Each structure stands twice: as C-alpha cells, then as structure tokens.
Please model this.
Amino acid sequence: MTTDATTSPAPPAASDFIREIVRADLASGKHQSVVTRFPPEPNGYLHLGHSKSICLNFGLARETGGRCHLRFDDTNPTKEEMEYIESIQTDVRWLGFDWGEHLYYASDYFETLYGWAEHLVEAGLAYVDDLSAEEIRAHRGTLTEPGTESPYRNRSIKENLDLLRRMRAGEFADGARVLRAKIDMASGNLNLRDPVLYRILHAAHPRTGDAWCIYPTYDYAHGQSDAIEHITHSLCTLEFEDHRPLYNWLIEHLPVPSRPRQIEFARLNLSSTVLSKRKLLRLVNEGHVAGWDDPRMPTLSGVRRRGVPPEAVRALVERVGLAKREGTVDYALFEHCIRDLLNRTAERRMAVLRPLRLIITNYPEGEIEELEAVNNPEDPAAGSRRVPFGRELFIERDDFMEDPPKKFYRLAPGREVRLRYAYLVTCDEVVKDAAGEIVELRCSYDPATRGGDAPDGRKVKATLHWVAAAAAVEAEVRLYDHLFTVDSPGADHDLADDLNPDSLVVLAGCRLEPALAGLAPGTQVQFERLGYFAPDLDTTPSRPVFNRIVTLRDTWAKVAAQGG
Ligand code: ATP
Ligand code: MG
Model:
C-alpha cells in the first residue's frame, strides 16, 4: 500500500466477495430481502474483532434494506451472565447499529431444538452414546485415520428415544450420556464423525432457569436458530468453514422452515493485543487490568471509555475490508483511523501535563488578558475561543533545558520562543530549590508581539503551549501505551509475561486551560502538541480526569510504506 492510498478516504463498502454473493441472490430472486444476524455468545464483552462481524452483518442489512438480528447464542449456561448480555447490547448500539424488534436468544428455541432432536432419533439419524467425553475423543480418529464407531451406535430407535427423554428428565448425571448425530465415523471431515448434539449439564441457565438439564451444542443450535429466524446469509469466521458440511447436513435432515447459507470470512486480528474473550477474561480475572472497560483493553467498552469515537472503529473495519485469508492488521492502522477522524473533528485546547512555572517579570502583576485561540484549524466553522494569559504561567517541563544539546530549539537560558497565541518570551533566569531541581523560570515578554509575531519580523524556532496559573484547572491525566510489549502476545511466552509494565502512566497535578473544565463525557479534544484526549468516567466536578486516546505522531504511513 502506498502512503497516498493510506491518506485518501476509504472506498465505499462497494464490493467484496460476500456483498457480491448477496447482490447476486437478490438479483436472481433467490431472496426478496436480506436477513443477517450477529450471534454473540454472552460469555464476555465484545472486542474490536466483533466489530468486524457487527459492521458486516448490520451494514449488509442496512445497505440492502434488509434486517439484522441480534441473537444471543446462550447455549452454555455455565459461562454466561446477564452482565454480558447487557454490555453487548450497549456496545452494538454504540457502534451505531440497531436490531429493532429483532432481539433473540438461542435459548428461546430450546423446545423446538429438542423436538428436532427427537425427529433425528426417530429418523435413525441420532443416537444416545454412553461413552465418556474422553472416550469419544479417543474414538474420533485423526485427520489421517478414520474414527471408531461407538459400541452404542446401533441402539434401536426406541431405546434411543427412551434414553433421550430420560436425559431430558434429569435421570442421568452430567457427562453420563450424550446425543450424537449418526453420520459417518470415517468421514474425512472430523466434524461429521458423529458430532455431539446434546450434553447433560445440571446447571441453571440465566434465562431458562432450571427448565433444562441438557443443552444443545453450538453446532446443533446455531444453524437451526438461523433457519428458525429465516436468516438468508449466515456470516461467520473462517474457523467454521470445516463445520459447514455439518451445518448443511442438519438443515437438510430437519424440518426447518428455511435454508440459510453459511459464508465464512477472515477474522480481524490486531497486532500488539489479543482479540479473544477467553484471554481478555483472564486479564480481568487476574487483575492485570482494572476491568473489561479498562481503557487499555481492546474491548468496545474499553476503547469507548478511552474516548475513541465509534466512527473510528467503523473506519478501521472498512479499511481492513473483507477477505477469505487470515492476516494480522497493524495496530497502527487503528490509531491512524482515530487520528484521521479526530484531526477533523476534535477542538484544540492547551494543557500542560508536567508543569513548570514560568513568571513573566515585566508583565503587570494581577493583570489577566484574554487571547484569541483557534478551535480547529481544519474546521473554520469551529470558531475560536478566548484563553486567559497572565504573569504566571505553566509550560511543559520538557520544553525547557538548561543546557540544551544541538537541535533542541525550545526554551533555554537566554533564548526566545513563542507562546502559542500569545507573545514571544525570553528566558532570563532559572530558579532552583535546595535540591538543585528547577522550580521556576523567570522570563520577559515583548509586548509588541501580541498574537505571536514580532513587528520586526524576527523569527523564533519554537512555539510552546502554556496555561495561565490563575485560571488553570487542575486535573489527572492518564497516558496509555500498548498493553503488551510484543506483536503477538502469548505466542512465545505466557500471555502475562508479555504484558507491558508501562502501559499506564498516571499524571497528577496537570494544568488545563479553563475551557476544559466540565467537558462532557464522550467529547474528544486535542491537547496541542500532546495528542487526543477525552474525559474519563472517573471525572468528578472537582477533579477532571482525562485519558489520552492516542498521540499525534502517526506511525501508520511508515508501516504502510514498509509494506506492513
Ligand atoms: P472469541 O474468540 O473472542 O470468544 P467468538 O468467535 O467465540 O470470539 P462469539 O461471541 O461467538 O465470539 O462471536 C460472535 C460473532 O463475532 C461470531 O459470528 C464470530 O465469528 C464473530 N467474531 C468473533 N471474533 C471475531 C474477529 N476477531 N473478527 C471477526 N469476527 C469475529
Ligand atoms: Mg465462541
């Protein structure tokens, strides 16, 4: 990809192999309208990977005037919680999508699914197996060797039906028996070697309570739920490609009301992070992060809390596109999408993160004047604001060096710099405390340079941001870095060993210009020269807390130029 292509706007989601299939199905009259679904298992919070599936399923429905269902795949009662069900709905809405009336649960279909299980038994296409999970695994064979038939495979239909009903009635212990489809133990596809359809699990379900003690497997529940809902295109990730023959076998042999088509696409993988609920749950449970919505987490609730706008997540998904080949997307592309958006939309403000006091000795004591500052140079409509200026200011500690090396053009003894929107100032004196630490700079300003330019045309090499002490708002600012130190966390070490110990830096005593007080949550701003920031949930009326969403320096162009 060339640098040029990375800065041009993303192409419309015009064409990919799935959209072509869908368009052809509509054109040929195979379907009058498109029905898709997003089918999360409520066993964790949604992550950036899920946004690919959400944007695809809801996007297709929107583009074609069809509809997209939100269906909770709640077939595993032991790992599922109401908290997840609620967070998933919040996250899908936040991303900009809506299922309208079409909120469903696989558990709504338990009775129908069970009835179809009896149907398979009666057709001689399913049997109750007494082998343990371990024995079933051992009988399964390998990719090169066929499996072995269970000694229980040839039970009579009558005995199977009786056992299945007694399984449902709760007569047997967990794991004592399973219901399996009777397909082909010698199939080249392991998924067709008599896959398990039902397991015994005496566990309360968040929605069906104690009504059931047998639960359908994913493979059995998923396609049938699709068919019940008249899903036309069942879009899933590539790991289900090998399950498609089973998906189709079940649809073929059951009295389902429709025949959905499963199509697989490559999942989204991002470098420097993990997109797996299981791994993210571990980070939460082991306390490596503060929770699912920790701003370092690649969860939708994490990036939302950090301040990332949903448009940037959608832009990422669009830029990545749809393919049938697995790959890992550089995290820098996500950051690029965020900057690209916020550069256009975020208003500029001044904030000093590591304050160093600067006194303008020739500025009248007690006087405050207001200077005009542009809100967003990319957007004239954003207008301007007035920023207070006075004798006592704060500048960034690392914008001053007492003994500057070559190429350090910012403030130093005897040197003149520009204070953004204000005046040119010269450093006359450095004040230190007893420990030798610099505590204050004493400067003089040139009153003729109001606005930042000298009438005699003399140039300065640096422009610094600043905040007037008298009007400053004190705040905490949280700086984030990658949660992991490596591109593929957990690939060569235990996941926990790849954690970045410096992924969070908390700065107290930061000083903000007054316009940053009371900023509404979900509002993004650029702190000039520092990055894009947004207020965190921990903000209180007396103490703002800001998260750094992303720095200003875009590394994506470099990555892209290297062919990344
Ligand atoms: P995880 O591995 O994080 O548990 P999952 O696939 O088990 O993910 P589900 O709740 O089953 O999570 O996923 C709901 C939908 O989101 C599925 O259709 C799944 O294919 C899709 N999905 C999950 N992860 C990704 C990803 N990284 N990229 C694209 N789609 C994804
Ligand atoms: Mg899953």
Observations:
- The chain has three domains: 111-217, 266-349+474-564, 351-465.
- The longest strand covers residues 424-432.
